[in-house]
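DM from R.C. (forwarded with permission)

"hey, sorry to bug you on a friday — could you get me a structure for this? deadline for the figure draft is monday and I only need the backbone to look sensible"
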Amino acid sequence: MICNLCPRRCGAKRTETENISGHCKAPETVVLSRAALHFWEEPCISGQNGSGTVFFSGCPLSCVFCQNREISQQINGKAVTVERLAEIFRELELAGAENINLVSPTHYVLEIAKAFEIYKPKIPVVYNSGGYESEATLSAASKFTDIFLMDLKYLDSEKALKYSSAADYPEVATKAILRCAEIVKENIFDEMGMMKKGLIVRHLILPRSTNDAINVIDWVEDNVPFAVLSIMSQYTPCGNLKEFPEIDRKLTLREHNKVLEFAADSKIKKIYTQSLSSVGEQFIPSFDMTGV
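My reply, with the result:
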């Protein structure tokens, strides 16, 4: 296939086994690195039983600070058929998963849609994205998605270019989130507080980026006030960041408190926050092909 799924529209040639000149590096065949119950998502996603997370290899962004870089920037994992992917959805459902959580699904959205045609679980499906999505991809995802869990990494185009090689990220991601809001229209929770339908907007606070974080909070309040806002303080320096010394450290308490205090004064109805104790590589999943 000639791929233009993500906003880069790089026209990569993706065959069953390789990706020629594409940014995400993903072949046409689905590659997974892990499929298991996960307890470290937002409370309304993980719940008591855990979220049935399916980690896809490859990513259209390749952020320099990505904690999942071993799978997002390298195609580490196991190739699976669409039929096997459908089986994995069923296995996670039988294991008691609160939902099926598709992590970095963008470049495999067509194969994922086929898998759900084979087997659609009776639990919600979460589209867990970095936010860099095209209209066409979101339209395809809308056919099987109940919950959109969307990053809004930056509203600063210079930071987006520097850290994710995507100067257009703010424009693309905000447009994508607005489209997700149109698709789901509202948030629906059950009596246990578990989300069954809706929109969550995530923002990871980066060092020396508190003003951008505050702008994200303002944008959510002004544009998608019904969305759940998840402010993450778990930033952990990963990989080689010598070229980016300003983010080669953890958040300070001052940075953390500044953003959370601003969020507390907003009119957003539901906000999740993290303590600084959530920082550390021990919270990064093992991409060991469990469940694949």
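R.C.: lifesaver. The mean pLDDT is 94.
me: no worries. The longest strand covers residues 195-204.
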